[in-house]
Write a structure and sequence with these properties.
Chain lengths: 262, 262
Amino acid sequence: MRGTGAEADINEKDEPGHDGGGVERPMTHPRPQSPHGPGVAAHEVLAVVFQIRQDRLSVLLWRRGRPPFEHHWVLPGGELGHAEGLDESIRRQLAQKVDVRELTHLEQLETRGAPDRHPQGRTLATAYLGLVPADIDPVIPADTAWHTASDLPLMGFDHAAIVTSGRRRLRAKLSYTNIGFALAPPEFTMSELSRYYRAALGHDVAATNLRRVLLRRGQIEETGESVPSGRSGGRPAAMFRFRARQLEITDAFAVLRPPARA
Amino acid sequence: MRGTGAEADINEKDEPGHDGGGVERPMTHPRPQSPHGPGVAAHEVLAVVFQIRQDRLSVLLWRRGRPPFEHHWVLPGGELGHAEGLDESIRRQLAQKVDVRELTHLEQLETRGAPDRHPQGRTLATAYLGLVPADIDPVIPADTAWHTASDLPLMGFDHAAIVTSGRRRLRAKLSYTNIGFALAPPEFTMSELSRYYRAALGHDVAATNLRRVLLRRGQIEETGESVPSGRSGGRPAAMFRFRARQLEITDAFAVLRPPARA
DNA sequence: CCAAGTTTGTGCCTACTAGGCTAAAACTCG
DNA sequence: CGAGTTTTAGCCTAGTAGGCACAAACTTGG
């Protein structure tokens, strides 16, 4: 154990600046701060926005118009405003790509801070995972497009790795939460829903089993209506809906649970 | 959908500064940047370091010596160095409290960025979850101490909420990963291990069931040795060890798994 | 109107996991 | 040696996921 060095500066910040005032920032006198320099950096927020489009998990990307990474694809987002919270900021930035009302889920994913992740200077990025239901087709700016998540274009910065994190998070949460509500339209048949799950999970999902599992968990319920059978025949399908539109964790899923008569 | 406004600045950062050079920072001319200002803020890294001490989940806290929040308790950590990665930074900062070799697990927890979370100016914080095994008693500086997680002292900033996040994360991961390896000593009996789990989970964990579950999952194995029975009698207990010392997810735990013959 | 084809829904079965309970095993102490 | 204590093994129940076969309910074409 070392610990005799510079504890004094740990968790101390006596910054004079940050007065919430203007854009020009005092930060003039370098403080004695061990060989590490002050903890000030540009900060951006990014979002991995997924939607199931034509049975494929797709991610909303933005095509950069200038260097670095000109003509590469990047995640939507931008710089954190000086008086903005992180959630607030990503919502604002996304509103310029996708209508916020179309975002059915948004959660923080991870923060990346490798010193060289941005070629033009130190920039931290906090990434979010956002979901858009499959039934809408948002109007998006000309320089953005949906890309199949399993077949990404050339991407800038570390954004491809962030998409991978987002996919992993989504896949995991489909197992133990009701997050499907954010991918599916308000009402759906079981075969539709199983296609959404298949696209997001990357493997077949039997509609029969999906129905049983989600019904037993109480995540979905029948609406009472049914669709008048497809053009190729077949029994008409019942319509379902998710009962909650907020993220809920499947509690029966916790192992090593408290004893029965506790 | 709005989207006609200032897309141009989204994800664009043409910062001239951040040249990795010195402590004094150019950042002089305010850029036209919508009414939100530039995305530059102080950034600190914090850690929720847990250890099971005397059958209680305990967290390492640091007592602040100066305002704001003088004499309140805060999480260990400090400012991000100007050329440091986030993981690198929290490891460096923690090394001044606890020997890094004693940290058996470290993962990113969450990033907080409420504009008013720091009374002296905008400061983002990326929090980590760290674990120290129960068998060691790290030498810690005089101004730090272990506190029972369920009975926290008066804490500064939003750090109490971060501890709560850490507890939730730890609890969840005890269910579906082998994270116990990071709480337990290299070798242990099942009754010891069940005490660690009880402390972390907050409820009784039957040693019989814990043994079965972890053995079936292949997380633990018998060492072959046994302890020569306690002073109060009883059958001598077999010693176990975790088979891996890296985080692994219990895959059999995923629901909606790929079809059998896929 | 009926037969064939198609899709959805139900029932039955298996496999696996967690967890409660009891009894046996293996020790200490008096 | 017997009583008390602790660990371990065995047996049982409950709950969940998932495969499969068949019934139900439709469309289409003769």
